[in-house]
Design goal:
Blueprint lengths: L7 H14 L11 H8 L3 H13 L3 E4 L3 E4 L4 H25 L2 H15 L4 E2 L2 E5 L1 H15 L5 H19 L12 H13 L3 H25 L13 H10 L1
Antiparallel strand pairs: 1-2, 3-4
Helix pairs in contact: 1-3, 4-7, 4-9, 5-6, 5-8, 8-9, 9-10
């Protein structure tokens, strides 16, 4: 059966979301309707609907008298986001382990296989994540969450993961450090899930999330590359605090 054609609103939403997560629309960038209408060949009403959805996911925000902006980045927000992700994603994971069926397990195995066979580094930009790997990584983690029967919890978890992806794209994604084996982390997570060991899986996922945040904070502290500070909440004082605490 052919998939239904996406509506104009859905197309605009997906295009905007993709451009934000890929960094083509930078954190803090203004999103004036005149520019967006031309760029995405969509009406103001369609774009307003798309921006409202993105605001609900924490990817854009509406500022009084200034309109919509891509959500700025800050160390404080990254730390808060990490804490929220650990709480929500481990809760959703536990529900998935309790309720996921054989089809869920099969999907996990398939998604992990694709992820493990994907090159992490982009050939055209060796220091950046490959779009193929990024998509496979997102699909694997989404497959984990899909086992949870509570749609509200899943939506919250997916929204938090989307917000985290902005930080991943705008920091040093491949600077995992010599002691980190991200492939082994994913394998350990898969094994615990298939074994239906909720405690072990939750522990691996929490450590996985914290390890990624530590990499991003370390990148900021070292000054190699950091969240842009010219657009608001990602301030110089945030960066200097990270340097002192590292």
């Amino acid at each position: 059966m052919a998939r239904p054609t996406p509506t104009r609103g859905e197309q605009a939403y997906l295009a905007l979301r993709t451009d934000i997560l890929a960094g083509r629309l930078a954190p803090g960038d203004r999103l004036p309707f005149a520019t967006l209408c031309t760029r995405y060949e969509a009406s103001m009403g369609v774009l307003r609907e798309a921006l409202s959805r993105l605001a609900e996911q924490g990817l854009v925000r509406l500022e009084p008298q200034q309109g919509y902006h891509v959500m700025p980045l800050s160390i404080t927000d990254l730390v808060d986001l990490t804490a929220a992700r650990v709480e929500i994603e481990t809760l959703v994971l536990r529900e998935a382990v309790a309720h996921g069926d054989l089809a869920w397990e099969s999907e996990l195995l398939a998604r992990h296989h694709t992820l493990s066979r994907s090159f992490q580094s982009a050939p055209e930009a060796p220091g950046r994540l490959s779009p193929t790997w990024t998509a496979a990584h997102a699909a694997f983690h989404s497959a984990i969450l899909a086992g949870c029967p509570n749609g509200r919890l899943r939506a919250i978890a997916e929204g938090l993961r989307a917000s985290a992806e902005v930080y991943r794209q705008w920091s040093v994604p491949l600077a995992h450090g010599p002691s980190r084996d991200i492939g082994a982390e994913h394998r350990a997570l898969l094994d615990a899930l298939v074994d239906r060991d909720a405690d072990a899986a939750a522990g691996v996922l929490a450590a996985h999330i914290h390890a990624t945040t530590a990499v991003l904070l370390d990148a900021i502290a070292r000054g190699r590359e950091h969240p842009r500070n010219d657009h608001g909440s990602g301030s110089d004082s945030d960066a200097s605090r990270a340097g002192r605490s590292a």
